[in-house]
Specification:
Strand order of the largest sheet: 6-7-8-3-9-10
Strand content: 15-25%
CATH class of the largest domain: Alpha Beta
Pfam families: ABC_tran
Number of domains: 3
Bound molecules: adenosine-5'-triphosphate
GO molecular function: ATP binding
Keywords: ATP-binding, Nucleotide-binding, Repeat, Transport
Number of strands: 20
CATH architecture of the largest domain: 3-Layer(aba) Sandwich
Domain ABC transporter: 10-246, 261-502
Protein name: Sugar ABC transporter ATP-binding protein
């Protein structure tokens, strides 16, 4: 077998890791061959991030062994030795926003000129060389805060390679990217693979696994289930390994009743504008209706949602069940009947130190007991219902959300959006980082919650999300340019979304 003689780039055997009472990994095994792109998949909470923590030396395993190229892993405190062997590009940026790209690349190891003095010119030059060597089309002078997600990931990969690592872990690298950027990233990964870089690729988007990876490892319930070439594991078999049962996935919302043309308008936007992002949008959502909003990153779709939720200044009028909502005020939107799920849970979604119950009921704290006094029993009761309804994998309502896996944290954010019993749900990328079955339960919740009771505006790049919608509008350059009723044609929808001169990297 090819490459069978060379020791694996990384090998983890029998890894166990507990966090207090939680068994995050019971039997974690992984073997990645030199030069391959290896997928690691599993449901939310399966233990993928925990394994990454162990493989990068951030977590010390309770049991098991990690070997790099056949040799034992470095001592836990020897960060430099770890960085030479492995790097991880996380969803959350690890660059310092205030510094330039060049300063970030050489953070803590600035090239020094004569007499040991720091040389800004040399720093810039070496950074430019490094970026060019790995074909990263980014200026070294750019401030890190101005990087797109795509650029930031490439800069982080180049930085890792410059430290000597030839094994890079990508933790859901496509979660915040749109289709064109994903294609560009994949092209870059293929180039780097050609140059001898090995990747471990974590994603909940299974088609991507087939597109970019040669082998796949599946974890379920803290254990290794299978490792196989992707060509030998069909999509159904892969899903079966992940969820542990041979039942196909359900197409959520396939049987939604049609929305009556005279159903009440729960949300009405008239001439809504957001300076710099949205020109003028007229749109309404009826009771019982899910309206999808699609568009590229520059379309203004996210900013439109944020304006409805009171997070941005806006012009024009927003009405919920006929009542005007004051602009730019989150409490006004909330009181007026808007339930909001933000696009980036790591930034706006939850307070990591607070419990599942506290986070989920944050918007209704005044309604959990007499005179605004929170009765823990009432709060926990609400939280337990939500944990069951949304299938949240947690030790219980008192566990801090910061300890949950990414997908489970997202379910808590969804619960919070629903907690105030809103007239209209405004959801931005609700299934980002969520596994196949959890996607079903999250979209299932949106479907169920909007049958007759309320409406939803669902802003997403995900075709699976948009399929649940009764109709999808497409935004380009801050305006609505088209509308597609349920059953839309994928090619037509994508063409309309992408059919603009999008700025490249
Ligand atoms: N610091 C921590 N403290 C307590 N529990 C933790 C901690 N980190 C992870 N866990 C728990 O360990 C389990 C595995 O989580 P992990 O983040 O490894 O899953 P994952 O497969 O990466 O999931 P996702 O796809 O949702 O990111 C989960 O039950 C999680 O709640």
């Amino acid at each position: 077998m090819d490459g069978a003689q060379a020791p694996p780039v990384v090998e983890a055997v029998g890894i166990a890791k507990r966090f207090g009472p939680t068994v995050a990994l019971a039997d974690g095994n992984l073997s990645v061959r030199a030069g391959e792109t290896h997928a690691l998949v599993g449901r939310n909470g399966a233990g993928k991030s925990t394994l990454v923590g162990v493989l990068t030396g951030l977590h010390r395993a309770d049991a098991g062994e990690v070997r790099f190229a056949g040799k034992p892993a470095p001592a836990p405190g020897d960060r430099a030795a770890w960085r030479e062997r492995v790097a991880c590009v996380y969803q959350r940026p690890s660059v310092v926003r205030e510094l330039t790209v060049a300063e970030n690349l050489f953070l803590g190891r600035q090239p020094r000129g004569r007499f040991g003095l720091l040389s800004p010119g040399r720093l810039r030059r070496e950074a430019a060389e490094l970026l060019e060597a790995w074909a990263v089309p980014v200026s070294p002078d750019l401030a890190a805060r101005d990087l797109t997600v795509e650029q930031r990931q490439l800069v982080e990969i180049a930085g890792a390679l410059s430290l000597g690592a030839r094994f890079v872990i990508l933790d859901e690298p496509t979660a915040q990217l749109e289709a064109k950027a994903i294609n560009r990233l994949f092209d870059r990964l293929r180039d780097l693979q050609q140059q001898g870089v090995t990747f471990l690729f974590i994603s909940h988007h299974l088609p991507e696994i087939y597109e970019i990876c040669q082998r796949v490892t599946v974890f379920r319930d803290a254990r290794h289930i299978v490792t196989a070439p992707v060509a030998e594991l069909s999509h159904d078999k892969l899903v079966e390994a992940m969820i542990g049962e041979a039942r196909g996935l359900v197409q959520v919302g396939a049987d939604r009743p049609s929305v009556s043309a005279d159903a009440e308008k729960v949300l009405e936007l008239s001439g809504v504008g957001v300076p710099g992002f949205v020109e003028s949008v007229d749109l309404s959502v009826r009771r019982g209706e899910i309206v999808g909003v699609a568009g590229s990153a520059a379309s203004g779709k996210r900013q439109l949602a944020e304006a409805i939720a009171g997070l941005r200044a806006r012009s024009g009028e927003v009405r919920v069940t006929g009542r005007v909502i004051k602009a730019g005020q989150v409490p006004a939107a909330l009181r007026g009947g808007v339930g909001y799920l933000p696009g980036d849970r790591n930034v706006d979604g939850f307070v990591p130190g607070l419990s599942v119950a506290e986070n989920a009921t944050m918007t209704i704290a005044g309604k959990l007991g007499p005179r605004g006094f929170v009765l823990p029993k009432v709060r926990d009761g609400r939280a337990n219902t939500m944990i069951a309804d949304l299938d949240v994998h947690t030790a219980g309502p008192h566990q801090p959300v910061g300890e949950l896996s990414g997908g489970n944290a997202q379910k808590v954010v969804m619960a919070r959006a629903l907690a105030s019993d809103p007239e209209v749900l405004v959801l931005v990328q609700p299934t980002a980082g969520v596994d196949v079955r959890s996607k079903e339960s999250l979209l299932g919740a949106v479907d169920e919650q909007t049958r007759s009771r309320r409406g939803a505006l669902l802003v997403s790049d995900e075709l699976d999300d948009l399929r649940v919608c009764d109709r999808v509008v497409v935004m380009v350059g801050g305006r609505v340019v088209g509308e597609h009723p349920r059953g839309w044609n994928e090619a037509e929808l994508v063409a309309e979304i992408e059919g603009i001169g999008e700025s490249g990297v």
